[in-house]
Structures are given as structure tokens and as C-alpha cells.
Design brief:
This protein has helices at residues 6-9, 46-60, 94-102, 111-123, 180-184, 186-197, 205-213, 217-241, 257-270, 292-306; strands at residues 13-18, 22-28, 34-41, 67-71, 74-75, 80-83, 92-93, 106-110, 130-135, 139-145, 148-149, 245-249, 283-285. It is α/β, with parallel strands linked by helices. A hairpin with a 5-residue loop joins strand 2 and strand 3. Helix 8 (217-241) crosses helix 9 (257-270). Bound molecules: zinc ion.
């Protein structure tokens, strides 16, 4: 017989982060920790993902424990997912489906919004608004202002990956050209290096960053250019939003200075030239790391439950 500690007994909520290839699920506790962490391949269909989340919730927490899910895709204010880059959601009411399958309240939000909320919550009081930009396979964004996630009119806002950085840039999946995502994402870094190096086999952004670290000049240029275009895009955004803090998360941010340095330089040079007295706006790396989305979703679900 194992003694059940208060810690294991009753989580405040369950957090889920549904990415393009991996799903992360864990129980969130009052002391800010997670237990029962599960990381798995994302099932290929939306109903299978919902079944996986429901199965986890029913197995790991008492019935009725609220569930927060961060999803890579366009999420409406009501918790429907209109589309995702990887999964066909087709406007499914994901929050309602999870709720029906578990009998628990469920909250669904965009993964970058969740990451922004996670960073806001982890950092406590500080310079605001907080702009979160996630640079991984794609590029996403979220904004926390006045203690709330900014959602716009329809829930779809802060699509930082799809603001214009270079009008002459590559075609984007959204139908436009030269979006930040086509120039600064991990996908963009990998394909640009592949194209310029004429390498025979496909390469990942992580490999390009490793090449750059070991002195490969072409890799260094590709990573630096990607950072530059991110900074150009962020400069436009700061003219509109005037954020107090910009947090950069996602796998590409782990490249560090070789990516963030050029981004910060471009941001500084294109921010607001006639407001030279402004303090330099630096880019901060994520405090939650890979858990930002998981954490934000879990905290949101726990708080929503609290406030009834
Ligand atoms: Zn686009």
C-alpha cells in the first residue's frame, strides 16, 4: 500500500499541449508542479487526439478535474479549432468534445496564446504588455495585456508568423508572400540551407544550427538571416503594440545569440527611428522553456475553474 500524499491526490487541472508531432499531457498541482507527465506522438486525426486526452484525464485525475489544451491552430473564442497546420480540425468544437468525453470543464486555446499566458504567470508582475513569439516548425504569437490574453474580435490574433517581413520573399501556405514564417521558422532555415548548399538529403533546422556552431559559414548566414527577418517583422509589430517585454520561445530560439542577436539588431534599427530616446527593447528567452504551452493551458483551466 502506498501512502497517498496530498500532492498526488488531487491536481488542480490537467494541461495538454498538442503540437504538430508531439502531444504533452500532465497533471498540474497547487504548488506549481506537474506530475504524471506523458509525451506521445500526436494521433493522425482530431477524434483520436480528443480520445487520447480524455483517456489520460480519466486515468490520471478525479472525474471533473478541469482540462486545458493548447493546440497549434486557429482557435476561436468558444474553443473551436478552425484549422491547424498539421491536423485537420475542420472547425470542430474541441473544448465541447473533450468536455463531453470526460464530464469535466475543458478550455482550448492557441498554443502560442497558451505559451504567452504561461510566461506571464511564471514571471509575475513585470513590464507589460508581454508579447510571446514562438519560433519552431512555424512561427506563432500571443499577447498578454492588462492581465488577460488578447484575443481580438474572433479569437484569432497575433498571427506573428503571417505578418509581412519581405514583400519579395517566398510564397506562404496562407496564400501571401514573404510572411515571417517563410523566412524565420525552423522549416525556412532547413529549406534555405538545403537549397543554397545543394545538399542531396533533407536537413533539419537543428542540424543547420549545429553546423553554424561548428563554423559552417553558410549555416551561420542562414541562421543570421532568419533572425534578421524575425526582427524586421517584430519591428512592425512593436510600432502597433508597444510591448514592454518580448519573449522568444520555441526550438529555434535555442540557437541563442546567432539567431537572437541579428533579430534584436533588426528590431532596434527598424523599430521607430524618430524615437531614438527609447530604451533598447531586448528579446528575452522563455522561462518555461518547452513547457510554456502546457503550463499556460493548465494554469488557465485551473483559474477558470476557480472563478466558476
Ligand atoms: Zn503567411
Amino acid at each position: 500500500v502506498t501512502a497517498v500524499t496530498g500532492h498526488v491526490a488531487r491536481p488542480l487541472s490537467i494541461g495538454c499541449d498538442v503540437g504538430g508531432s508531439k502531444i504533452l499531457m500532465a497533471c498540474y498541482h497547487e504548488d506549481g508542479t506537474f506530475s504524471g507527465r506523458v509525451r506521445a506522438r500526436v494521433p493522425g486525426s482530431a477524434p483520436a487526439i480528443i480520445a487520447m486526452i480524455a483517456g489520460y484525464a480519466l486515468a490520471h485525475a478525479p472525474r471533473g478535474t478541469p482540462i486545458g489544451a493548447a493546440v497549434a491552430g486557429l482557435v476561436t473564442a468558444g474553443g473551436s479549432v478552425l484549422s491547424g497546420s498539421y491536423i485537420k480540425w475542420d472547425g470542430m468544437s474541441v473544448a465541447a468534445e473533450i468536455s463531453a468525453a470526460t464530464g469535466a470543464p475543458a478550455y482550448v486555446l492557441n498554443d502560442a496564446d497558451a505559451a504567452a499566458w504561461g510566461e506571464h504567470h511564471r514571471r509575475g508582475p513585470g513590464p507589460r504588455p508581454l508579447l510571446m513569439v514562438t519560433v519552431g516548425t512555424g512561427v506563432g504569437g500571443g499577447l498578454v495585456t492588462a492581465g488577460r490574453i488578447y484575443r481580438g474580435a474572433t479569437g484569432i490574433s497575433l498571427e506573428v508568423g503571417h505578418i509581412l517581413a519581405d514583400p519579395c520573399g517566398p510564397r506562404c501556405g496562407c496564400g501571401s508572400s514573404g510572411c515571417v514564417e517563410t523566412l524565420s521558422s525552423g522549416t525556412a532555415i532547413a529549406s534555405r540551407y538545403h537549397e543554397l548548399s545543394r545538399a542531396g538529403s533533407a536537413i533539419t533546422a537543428r542540424e543547420v544550427v549545429a553546423y553554424a556552431r561548428s563554423g559552417d559559414k553558410l549555416a551561420q548566414q542562414v541562421v543570421s538571416d532568419a533572425g534578421h527577418w524575425l526582427g524586421r517583422g517584430l519591428a512592425s509589430l512593436t510600432r502597433v503594440l508597444d510591448p514592454g517585454l518580448i519573449v522568444i520561445g520555441g526550438s529555434v530560439a535555442r540557437a541563442g545569440g546567432m539567431f537572437l542577436g541579428p533579430a534584436e539588431d533588426a528590431l532596434h534599427h527598424h523599430r521607430m527611428p524618430h524615437a531614438a530616446g527609447l530604451p533598447r527593447l531586448s528579446l528575452t528567452t522563455s522561462e518555461c522553456g518547452g513547457d510554456a504551452g502546457l503550463y499556460g493551458a493548465a494554469v488557465l483551466a485551473a483559474a477558470a475553474q476557480d472563478s466558476g
